[in-house]
Amino acid sequence: QVQLVESGGGLVQAGGSLRLSCAASGRTFSSYSMGWFRQAPGNEREFVAGVRRSGGETYYADSVKGRFTISRDNTKNTVYLQMNSLKPEDTAVYYCNTLGIWGKGTLVTVSS
20 to 30 A Cα–Cα from 93, which one of 12, 48, 74, 108? Predict the structure, then answer.
């Protein structure tokens, strides 16, 4: 069973940057695609970014394209989300996901 633990959230001003990490347990981390999702208060959880198991193919929601970068380090069983040019509308709890398994999330708050 894979377990996921997110970290790196916090409070940042608009225009700032944060880097989220998701550490995965389990020996087969490198076998699966990974994704980041987010959920703002009162909203449904939405897709943010995904990365194939090799790390060579990535895909993004239109709302974050050009500002966020997803990457993974299979030697560390970790996937990252580099978030630049943050906007107040990026405020949400960010979750890591693979195979339908969710972490507990990390809160990102962007002040205007």
Answer: 74
